[in-house]
């Protein structure tokens, strides 16, 4: 398994996160990069850098003005008197407030859904590098059968024009769009992160050519709260091409794997030419912000089932936070995937 990683990943280093009204150390820490990379090396997988495929594959799913904001915000920081180490708004645009302001603080509130995505000195190089890993893994999956993109920060909560949930650029969506363009045929995304892949769903909600399937904890009392319900099935041409499989909090391996199998059955019926797996590892029983009880054996079971689908597969890292089980779950997943291929 080739492992695409970007040495710029740790340059995005958010410090603080508001959880349930209390500031805590940000869960999406730079240390995740080295832990996941070292776990992949320990598992015997070969590291590769992604090269630079430019902005075009990112523009395939993201709004240009949003990308310009992300790329230029840090250089504009002196527009905000008294700014510290990060650009972060405490004011957010709501659907009924939709004017685009000129100032940087207002733009931050326009383009972010919450306070989890501060822009810091190294944020753009880190998120750009992660997106390049997704592009490289999509290309490698089509050429070689499969590849893993060690994307950090993650991406599946990012919409075409907004950051949120630790995510800026939707790496899984970028990989899927890349596969769609290269194959000319339909593709599919299977998101097994514990959180619903709301950004990915939003990007492809009106499209029939990219089937989006998400297995996640019930959002009725869990992030992302406002999307991820079973009755969200797509719109217009995309009707029937979005599938949400929410699980009750605390669900373990058996119901989780059953949902993964149901997702794979929907994907097989779509006859895709490529598959992107949004590989969150935060469904783990040990994850500090998780809500399910999946074990290393569960992750291995999912990997086996996904590998047996026999599709060109790009594995794109999503969530999974600092705990002893994090590297073990990645190693278990990659080993089982390789063994089943
Ligand atoms: Zn997650």
Q: Brief description of this entry?
A:
The chain is α/β, with parallel strands linked by helices.
Write the layout of secondary structure elements.
Layout: E1 2-5, E2 16-19, E3 22-25, H1 31-42, E4 46-48, H2 56-59, H3 64-72, H4 104-111, H5 123-144, E5 146-150, H6 171-183, E6 187-191, H7 198-204, E7 210-217, E8 242-247, H8 253-270, E9 274-279, H9 296-308, E10 313-317, H10 325-340
Parallel strand pairs: 1-4, 1-5, 5-10, 6-7, 6-9, 7-8, 9-10
Antiparallel strand pairs: 2-3
The chain binds zinc ion (ZN).
Tags for this entry?
341 residues; alpha/beta; Arginase, Chain A; 10 helices; globular; binds zinc ion; hydrolase; HDACs; His_deacetylse_dom; Acetoin utilization deacetylase AcuC
Descriptive report:
- The chain has a single domain, classed as Histone deacetylase domain (Arginase, Chain A), CATH 3.40.800.
- The protein has helices at 31-42, 56-59, 64-72, 104-111, 123-144, 171-183, 198-204, 253-270, 296-308, 325-340; strands at residues 2-5, 16-19, 22-25, 46-48, 146-150, 187-191, 210-217, 242-247, 274-279, 313-317.
- Helix 1 crosses helix 10.
- A hairpin with a 2-residue loop joins strand 2 (16-19) and strand 3.
- It has an eight-stranded parallel beta sheet, sandwiched between helices. Strands 2-3 form a two-stranded antiparallel sheet.
- With 341 residues, it is α/β, with parallel strands linked by helices.
- The protein contains ten helices and ten strands.
- It is globular.
- The mean pLDDT is 97.
- It binds zinc ion (ZN).
- Zinc ion is lined by residues 193-195, 280, 282, 318-319.
- Zinc ion binds at residues 193-195, 280, 282, 318-319.
């Amino acid at each position: 398994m080739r492992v695409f990683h970007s040495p710029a990943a740790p340059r995005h280093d958010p410090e603080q996160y508001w959880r349930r009204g209390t500031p805590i150390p940000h869960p999406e820490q730079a240390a995740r990069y080295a832990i996941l990379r070292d776990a992949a090396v320990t598992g015997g997988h070969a590291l590769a850098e992604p090269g630079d495929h430019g902005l075009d594959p990112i523009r395939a799913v993201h709004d240009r003005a949003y990308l310009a904001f992300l790329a230029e915000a840090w250089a504009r920081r002196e527009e905000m008197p008294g700014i510290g180490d990060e650009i972060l708004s405490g004011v957010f645009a709501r659907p009924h407030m939709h004017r685009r302001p000129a100032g940087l603080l207002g733009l931050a509130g326009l383009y972010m859904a919450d306070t989890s995505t501060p822009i810091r000195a190294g944020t753009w190089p880190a998120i750009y590098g992660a997106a390049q890993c997704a592009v490289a893994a999509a290309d490698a999956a089509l050429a070689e059968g499969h590849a893993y993109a060690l994307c950090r920060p993650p991406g599946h909560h990012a919409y075409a024009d907004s950051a949120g949930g630790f995510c800026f650029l939707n790496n899984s969506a970028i990989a899927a769009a890349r596969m769609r363009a290269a194959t000319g045929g339909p593709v599919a995304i299977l998101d097994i992160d514990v959180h619903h892949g709301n950004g990915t769903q939003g990007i492809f909600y009106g499209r029939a050519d990219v089937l989006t399937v998400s297995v996640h904890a019930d959002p009725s009392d869990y992030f992302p709260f406002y999307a991820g319900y079973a009755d969200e099935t797509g719109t217009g041409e995309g009707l029937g091409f979005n599938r949400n499989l929410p699980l009750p909090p605390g669900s373990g391996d058996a119901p989780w794997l059953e949902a993964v199998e149901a997702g794979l059955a929907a994907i097989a019926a779509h006859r895709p030419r490529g598959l992107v797996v949004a590989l969150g590892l935060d469904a783990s029983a040990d994850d500090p912000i998780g809500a399910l009880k999946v074990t290393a054996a569960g992750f291995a079971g999912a990997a086996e089932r996904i590998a047996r689908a026999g599709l060109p597969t790009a594995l794109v890292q999503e969530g999974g936070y600092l705990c002893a089980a994090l590297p073990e779950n990645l190693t278990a997943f990659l080993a089982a995937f390789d063994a089943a291929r």
